[in-house]
Amino acid sequence: MSAAPLLETRALTVRAAGRALVDRLDWRVHAGERWCVIGRNGAGKSLVLRALAGLSVPERAGEVLWQGRPQQDWPVGAAASTRALMPQQAQDRFALTVERTLALSQLVESTARGRASELMSALDIAALAARRADQLSGGERQRVALAQCAMQGATLMLLDEPVSFQDPAHQQLVGRWLADGAAGEHAWIASAHDPSWIARVATHVLALFGDGRWQAGTVAEILSAPVLEHTYGCAWRSVEGAWIPA
Amino acid sequence: MHARDPAVLRIALLALATAMVAALALGLGSGGWDWQLIVTLRAPRVAAAAGVGSLLALAGLALQVLLRNPLADPYVLGHSTGASVGALTALLLGAQIWLGAAAGALVAGLALLWLARPALAAADDASPRLILLGAMLASVFGAIATLMLALVPDQRLRGAIFWMVGDLSGADASLWNLAGAGLFVAWLWARGRSVDRLMLGADAAWLLGEPVRRLRLELLVFASLAVGLSVATSGSIGFVGLVVAQGWRLAGVLRTRELAVLSMLSGAALLMAADLLARLVVAPLELPVGAVMALIGAPCFIWFLAKGIK
């Protein structure tokens, strides 16, 4: 295992319609870290995650490195073990079952079954195994997508809004699972909105201000009234460890 | 695939049923049970029907994954008409018919892929637009083919019309179709898991390490060659490609490997049966099998649409 960070960006710039959403992002994510990306709607969270995953983004500049090596230098097969992406929307066009969807998301076919049942019970989707993935509720499909992403077994998981459709109990469940999930050589980056939830599950936060500026740091550094206000454009107060918009 | 796997049983049963259809197709018809007749006349025709049916079913399977649309089919999307134009061009130029047909199918496929590019890249549901694009391409190619027919010298008109209407009566004893279908299945088997992953979406497959661009190109080339070969043998026959793979998917078969074998067998059985009908219904006259197939296939398509299957 090299000491290189799992992910590094050098002057990563993402634009939409000519406007810089994220300007010259220099950022490092190391093994064992759990990052949340915050920012208002349209601030570029999804585009940044796509760029980090190596997917095409309309306007981007700068460099992304996985384990110290530029992402474009990775062969497509080997890259699959460096990063996985959970997209915001699953694209189900065929009537695949949950079980089948998970099995296809495993890199090594032989160990798929055991890993899948482990993940399905951890994320409370075991009862859905034989159901069609395209006929689940939004929250259920989202947990299946999270399991799909984890099935890949990549060292870095990129999660685009993993809890946006979850009821409070499942937000807790997913949060606890994520908080335990970056042990050892793994790490994850998730876009999320609720500072209280983030404070419970993450170690670090990247705040995107939507005008190109950004700020990265530990949870304690970023989850503060001034930074949250700058991020969301509304005042925040902390009540007994919970963040409430004023 | 494990021996106790239901897939093995399904394949075995279907193989048996296909063999029975083949036996019926060989044994029945005007002239009755005459060994000489069976070997010299019916066997080549039944082999051609089996080959063409297999190829079309496999082409449908491949196009459905390629275009991420369970309703994709070489006939609906203009591949077959493209192949007809190619075949007619080859006929007028005196070139190899099957080569012209394959080239025509490939051009039609590339045109559709290029036109549908924005829809396929976007996450939104491209289904209705894709089918409409395909239908428009099919009518453009259909018009070109009709115009070309006007240029064909009179004595060759009968032969030229053959490429427009699916008809097995002129099919020769070539085993190319069956060989091509076998090769297609072998390729789908080898790439089975990758093709399965393509069903999750192009981005998802790429993130899982699949060479998506190459895979899609291979799917398109195989589908086009299959359509070209089948059109060169029998003219354009619709709906086999649509009904077969889609039917097995609805029945719960989702693995490409199993789907490929089942599609080949049932495509063969379906067209052999349709051709048998075409020979028997108004015997001793014969109907063009393309029309018989459309009479079975179009109501199926309407049923799929009415059931709201994307």
Low-confidence spans of chain B: none
Please give the radius of gyration of chain B in angstroms: 19 Å
The CATH H-level homologous superfamily of chain B: ABC transporter involved in vitamin B12 uptake, BtuC
Principal-axis shape of chain A equals globular
Rg of chain A, please?
18 Å
> Can you give the helix content of chain B as a percent range?
over 70%
β-strand percent of chain B reads under 5%
CATH classification, class level of the largest domain in chain A:
Alpha Beta
Summary, kept brief:
The complex is a heterodimer of chains A (246) and B (310). By secondary structure, chain A is an alpha/beta fold.
Offer a few descriptive terms.
heterodimer, A: 246 residues, alpha/beta, Rossmann fold, six-stranded mixed beta sheet, four-stranded antiparallel beta sheet, 9 helices, 28% strand, B: 310 residues, mainly alpha, ABC transporter involved in vitamin B12 uptake, BtuC, 14 helices, 74% helix
Write the layout of secondary structure elements.
The complex is a heterodimer of chains A (246) and B (310).
Chain A: E1 7-16, E2 19-29, E3 34-38, H1 45-53, E4 59-66, E5 69-70, H2 76-79, E6 83-86, H3 98-104, H4 112-122, H5 138-151, E7 156-160, H6 168-180, E8 187-191, H7 195-201, E9 204-208, E10 214-218, H8 219-222, H9 225-232, E11 236-239, E12 242-245
Parallel strand pairs in A: 3-8, 3-9, 6-7, 7-8
Antiparallel strand pairs in A: 1-2, 1-4, 4-5, 9-10, 11-12
Helix pairs in contact in A: 3-5, 4-5, 6-7
Chain B: H1 6-27, H2 35-66, H3 79-93, H4 97-115, H5 117-121, H6 127-151, H7 157-161, H8 176-190, H9 192-198, H10 202-207, H11 212-234, H12 240-250, H13 256-280, H14 289-306
Helix pairs in contact in B: 1-2, 1-13, 2-8, 2-11, 2-12, 2-13, 3-4, 3-6, 3-11, 4-6, 4-11, 8-11, 8-13, 12-13
